[in-house]
Amino acid sequence: MRTPTPNYRPGWASYLSHFTHYPVIIALDMGLAPVAPLAGYDQYLTVSIPMIQPLLNGFPNEKELGLFWEMERFIVEQVERTANTIYAGRTTTQGKKHLIFFLYDPTKIPSIMAKVNRKYRSYAIQSRLEADPEWDIYFDLLYPNLEETNSLLNQRMVNRLLRQGDDLTQVRWVDHWIYFKTEEGRTAFINTVEGQGFETEAVSTQVGEHHYPYLVRTRKQHLVDLKTVNAITATIRTWARTHGGDYDGWETSVENQEK
């Protein structure tokens, strides 16, 4: 892949969302968000691949899944190698996979797509070019909203624990960190969470080093499987926002069966 800017760091992630009541799996390079939109890349290309026999949920069956990965790799390789493009992400929903690229020069796209269609004649693969200088398709369609971002961050933490041999079925202390704009907001938040069985500690910070200078650590014993932490962190985020706070994540110890 072409490196967009010196400050760019790739960061691919995927998550399940819904679009007009249909489930959609979205994968994107979240590393593009801090550097987008990129000057000159003011058009995007959508390559749409229809499934021949999709499942009832609109996703590919096991037989087609491998072929779809092969097609995606081939298309991405051809587009990135031949044209000056950036692969931003993909969606899978309603019996189709859509690959999205941002382009500097679209003149070579017709010949590339002709080659793709010759290779995969059984699939009616289509492509569409549209102007998008502000990268609205990236931020409005691909990029996760607040709760989806919460789930992605939790998934990253859970995967890190699993790589360290963690037994997710063990209850343990989990610390959550929240910053507040005002001391009054922090105090109101502490009253809320302590009423729900959380322990809290107001932490001193350097005023001015953070836009939300009043920090609190709240902790409770609970599981750290993805379903549990998604529910708990979503609730804490809601409590924090109610009192002008900004949830900053969680941390815990690694627990394994040998302990």
Please write out the topology.
Elements: E1 12-19, E2 22-29, E3 43-50, H1 62-82, E4 85-93, E5 96-103, H2 109-119, E6 126-131, H3 136-142, H4 146-163, E7 172-180, H5 183-194, E8 199-203, E9 214-222, H6 226-242, E10 245-252
Antiparallel strand pairs: 1-2, 2-4, 3-5, 3-6, 4-5, 7-9, 7-10, 8-9
Helix pairs in contact: 1-2, 4-6, 5-6
Structure description:
It is a single chain. By secondary structure, this protein is of the alpha+beta class. The protein has two domains: about 10-140, Alpha-Beta Plaits; about 155-250, Alpha-Beta Plaits, CATH 3.30.70.970. Helices cover about 35% and strands about 30% of the residues. It has a six-stranded antiparallel sheet, with helices on both faces. It has a four-stranded antiparallel sheet with strand order 8-9-7-10. Helix 1 packs antiparallel against helix 2 (about 110-120), helix 4 (about 145-165) crosses helix 6 (about 225-240) and helix 5 (about 185-195) crosses helix 6. It starts with 11 loop residues before the first strand and ends in a 7-residue tail after the last strand. The mean pLDDT is about 90.
**Helix/strand/pairing class, anyone?**
alpha+beta
Mean model confidence by pLDDT: 90
According to CATH, what is the topology of the largest domain? Alpha-Beta Plaits
Number of helical stretches of at least 4 residues: 6
The ordered string of helix (H) and strand (E) elements is EEEHEEHEHHEHEEHE
Largest sheet, in brief, is:
6 strands, antiparallel
Strand portion: 25-35%
Helix content: 25-40%
